[in-house]
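During the no-cost extension, the postdoctoral fellow (Dr. R.K.) reprocessed legacy sequence entries with the updated structure-token encoder. One reprocessed record is reproduced below for audit purposes.
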Amino acid sequence: AEVAALAALATATVAGLAKCTSEAAKLENNMSAMVRYVDGLTESATTSTEQAQSNLKAMRTYIQDLSTQIPRTTEQISKMSAALGQSGIGADRQMSTGILRDTAVAATAMDLEDDTAGNYMAKWEAAFNFNHDQVMTLMDQINYLGANNATTAAEIAQSVNQAASMGQIAGVDPSATAAIATGASTQIIAPCATVRSRGSSRK
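Re-encoded structure tokens follow.
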């Protein structure tokens, strides 16, 4: 019985190591796009070689940690990081402000594609002249509406993004756009469940 138990433990350990190795390999494979688009991960006029290497190591660890806190793989989170990077959000901000973590949480809660979540997070800041907390409040409202209406959160978010692409037509508040997209009243009801509540608390 002891031999059987030890054999089972050894099998589980090997399986666990194989999974970790597989995740690490996937992350390395997806680091290339992230390195290409995220400022601070390669040597530049403002980033030394040593600093870029340090940032890359820190980002790798950060993504691996996030994948244990949020039901997204390292591959998915690295895609979100690349999308944020394409919009000008560098490595330091992605890690220090929690914007990458919040992007992963929002993608999970609202059932968004990885690059779509990153695009929305960055685009809405610029289009609506919002700070990050205001974008998260808007996502909370969208998530609430999606949970309490026939229209999904992803569909509502797409409508809001279209408004962002068109320069927020006639100055309509994005929250009102979200409500209109559900066919509900243009007055937003205070959300009972937030996007952030779907993940663990921000650090």
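Residues 64 and 70 are 10 Å apart (CA to CA). The mean pLDDT is 81. The remaining legacy entries will be reprocessed before the final report is submitted.
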